[in-house]
User: What shape does this take?
Amino acid sequence: MFITLEGPEGSGKSSQLPVLAEWLRSKGYQVFTTREPGGTVIGDQIRAILSNLDNVSMQPRTEILLFLSARAQLVEEVIRPLLTQKTIVLCDRYADSTMAYQGYGHGVDLDTLRKLLDFATGGLYPDITFLFDLDIQTGLNRRRNSGGEWNRLDAYAIGFHERVRKGYLELAAAEPQRWIKIDAGQSFDQVQLDLQNALIKRLPIAANI
Ligand code: TYD
Assistant: This one.
């Protein structure tokens, strides 16, 4: 089973992911966690290019193709092989990030992006996607205050982040059977409980329960 976590900056998905993975392991599932862009040696090199503050001249199409290159590598090298071994793959960001950020955020044609995503992923899409929905200003403040990585991608205007959020909400509304919306403005523990409760209803029965 392939599960992805999506949402704006500072929505907490990256801190929730390892806790969710541990909970799944305690239920007897084999779990693998990864993140995008990255997750492979090649992907991590691409990630460094994307987040390098010196790369101010990066063109939108270049950026898209770099995200897709990292993804193509991750799918073939890591995700697909694991899915054939009854492993739950939990991935921090995936194709929907490209739709939300490059499509809705930067205004790149959505149909073109869909075709590129089909090519890059070889048609592999998640079974379940969690949307960590959060007020934009709260997310950006959280991220700055936590002293987390503040990179070129975070530095865009608020309007951009608003479009990303709206994009996510539209994507989720278009495919309600895949998306589960989580209120990321709640406490850490409550968000984790919401994730677990939503998964309990969807997971196949694990080996030892
Ligand atoms: P990261 O430091 O991983 O941020 P976060 O903790 O919010 O996931 O940086 C990833 C950034 O890359 C984030 O701003 C979203 C952006 N992104 C895209 O614009 N398109 C994509 O396809 C992906 C995977 C990420």
Summary: Residues 9, 14, 36-37, 67, 93, 97-98, 101-102, 149, 153 surround thymidine-5'-diphosphate (CB under 6 Å).
